[in-house]
Amino acid sequence: MVRNLDPFDLVVVDEAAQAIEPSCWIPLLQGRRCVLTGDMCQLAPTIMSREAMEHGLGISLMERAAGLHKGILSTMLSVQYRMHEAIALWASKEMYGGRLMSAPAVETHLLLDSPGVKVPLFILFRSGH
């Protein structure tokens, strides 16, 4: 079905670090340009077959491209916007060489600060509120 379409101007593969390489090539061969997004320090492709893993399917296209081009074509996100700084510091040290920083909007954010989250009664009583 994809082969019958006109070529795409741009193909974006989201979470490309988790996608097996053959699944990326299907749309990429129909595009003039591409952008691979994802994080190679997080989840790798899920491979159910040991044989497939032994034949190289455990490496994503994103990981292969980064290795071939020695990082020239990639950019690492330097600020994270998802978690409290205490959690992010561990990830930064263990997986990003200490280069990942927390955005001020989330660095002190607690789950209790989220809309719709109610404070359990035992916390209210323990804290004296």
Description of the structure:
This protein has 129 residues and is of the alpha/beta class. The protein has 2 domains: 1-75, no CATH class; 76-129, no CATH class. Helices cover 33% and strands 12% of the residues. It has 5 helices and 4 strands; from the N terminus they run E-H-E-H-H-E-H-E-H. The chain has helices at residues 21-28, 50-57, 61-68, 85-95, 121-127; strands at 8-13, 31-36, 79-80, 101-102. The protein has a two-stranded parallel sheet with strand order 1-2. A two-stranded parallel sheet has the order 3-4.
Task: Supply database-style keywords.
single chain; 129 residues; alpha/beta; 2 domains; two-stranded parallel ribbon; 5 helices; elongated
What's the gyration radius in Å?
20 Å
Tell me the domain tally. 2
The largest pleated sheet is described as: 2 strands, parallel
Query: Which sequence of SSEs, written as H and E, runs from N to C?
Result: EHEHHEHEH
Q: Tell me, what's the shape? A: elongated
Helix content, binned percent: 25-40%
Number of strands: 4
Give the overall pLDDT as a whole number. Answer: 85
- Indicate the low-confidence ranges by residue numbers: none
Strand content is 5-15%
Structural class: alpha/beta
Strand order of the largest sheet: 1-2
Count helical runs: 5
How far is the N terminus from the C terminus?
A: 62 Å
In brief, what are we looking at here?
Helices cover 33% and strands 12% of the residues. It is of the alpha/beta class and 129 residues long.
